[in-house]
């Protein structure tokens, strides 16, 4: 059974924030490579984080490749051959941890994640769709070579970048989900979510569409919008904890919200500040003992 078939068997539990768990384990993610640095410097820490989510009941483990790009690695002095090997390693580490008990999703974050300046929450990079597709294609090719079960095209802030990702995905032979980061009912770049999601209608390689890295209330509201605009595709939602990042104080404020299971979602998990305890609660709520 492939990943797309598994979506029809009932809701699948995604893991939570990988960086959240890595930091809880003492990892320093302050550099521009963020969690991707550990692919070279401390792969055991990544395995430990994956293991925590697997034990919590996750059906899907997401690789430590969100911020891993060839240009980003090059800026850190890592040449293309080693960068490709590290991208392959991200999938291998998740696969090694899963050992057939969970699916492996190869994460590909937006262009803004490579910039490491928060622009993934703004979009509008000033690049054309063609330029964005040329940026994304090499990394997606490398990740596809590593044979994940699905590609996670995630935290996409802009419909134009979604269009570029769909172009870059063409012919890779690996299914993908596409997940937007939103504020209310609009992408971070300001387009109506329904218009952005509609780009995926009729794209067979996209097996689920939805939102992540957003307020939990926005995630719940996005489910019917994403289902309708995509032509009935399964919906993926993995919001943040509900806390707010204070960029001036460089700290999270507010209290985390209890995890909720939005009705109609086929893939449910968490993003920033959502750890194994919250994923365990999600798993219990939707009966993740199916495995």
UniProtKB/TrEMBL annotation:
Query: GO biological process: any one?
Result: S-methylmethionine cycle
Q: Which residues form the Hcy-binding domain?
A: 1-286
One GO molecular-function annotation for this sequence?
A: zinc ion binding
EC numbers listed for it are 2.1.1.10
Source species taxonomy = Bacteria, Bacillati, Actinomycetota, Actinomycetes, Micromonosporales
Keyword tags: Metal-binding, Methyltransferase, Transferase, Zinc
- Which cofactors, if any, are listed as required? Zn(2+)
Q: Known InterPro entries for this protein?
A: BHMT-like, HCY_dom, HCY_dom_sf, Hcy_S-methyltransferase
Positions of Zn(2+) binding: 213, 271-272
| Cofactor binding: number and manner | Binds 1 zinc ion per subunit.
Q: What's the superkingdom here?
A: Bacteria
Q: Which Pfam families match?
A: S-methyl_trans
Q: What is this protein called?
A: Homocysteine S-methyltransferase
Q: Which SUPFAM superfamilies match?
A: Homocysteine S-methyltransferase
Organism of origin is Catenuloplanes niger
């Amino acid at each position: 059974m492939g990943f797309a078939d598994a979506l029809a068997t009932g809701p699948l539990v995604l893991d939570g924030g990988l960086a959240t768990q890595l930091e809880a384990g003492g990892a320093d993610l302050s550099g521009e490579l963020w969690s991707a640095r550990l692919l070279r410097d401390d792969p055991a820490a990544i395995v430990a984080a994956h293991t925590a989510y697997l034990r919590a009941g996750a059906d899907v483990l997401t690789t430590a490749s969100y911020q891993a790009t060839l240009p980003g690695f090059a800026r850190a002095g890592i040449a293309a051959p080693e960068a490709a090997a590290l991208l392959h390693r991200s999938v291998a580490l998740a696969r090694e941890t899963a050992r057939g008990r969970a699916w492996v999703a190869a994460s590909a974050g937006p262009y803004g994640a490579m910039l490491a300046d928060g622009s993934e929450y703004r979009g509008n990079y000033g690049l054309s769709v063609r330029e964005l597709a040329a940026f994304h294609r090499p990394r997606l090719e490398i990740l596809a070579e590593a044979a994940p079960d699905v590609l996670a095209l995630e935290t996409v802030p802009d419909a134009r970048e979604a269009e570029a990702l769909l172009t870059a995905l063409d012919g890779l032979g690996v299914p993908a989900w596409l997940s937007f980061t939103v504020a209310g009912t609009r992408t971070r770049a300001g387009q109506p979510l329904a218009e952005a999601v509609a780009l995926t209608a009729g794209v067979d390689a996209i097996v689920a569409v939805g939102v992540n890295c957003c307020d939990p209330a926005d995630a719940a509201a996005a489910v019917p919008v994403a289902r309708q605009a995509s032509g009935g595709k399964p919906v993926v939602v993995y919001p943040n904890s509900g806390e707010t990042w204070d960029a001036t104080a460089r700290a999270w404020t507010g209290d985390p919200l209890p995890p909720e299971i939005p009705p109609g979602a086929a893939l449910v998990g968490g993003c920033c500040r959502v750890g194994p305890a919250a994923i365990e609660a999600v798993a219990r709520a939707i009966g993740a003992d199916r495995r």
